[in-house]
Amino acid sequence: MTAPNTSFSAAPGEVLEKLREYVSSAQLLEVVYRDGAGQVCMAHDVVRDVFSRAGQDFVLLGRGVMLPFDRVLMLDGQRISGEAG
Q1: What gap in Å lies between CA 80 and CA 74, rounded to an integer?
Q2: DSSP-derived 3-state class of residue 62
């Protein structure tokens, strides 16, 4: 029995493309991220938008939380950042 893939081996652009798929499907997902104070937080929400401003990518969740992409650690249990919680 092989272990499930627990991390995206994709480049950040591919992960952003996956986030855009979540936008179009309005699928509920689990997002683990670091807030402005560095605390690890978890949200179960939909992705409302993925966009860039001033050279930085952002993820906008359905409840209005705007996350810089580099603070997102996991999507639906799959690690997308090199950081560990």
Answers
A1: 5
A2: coil
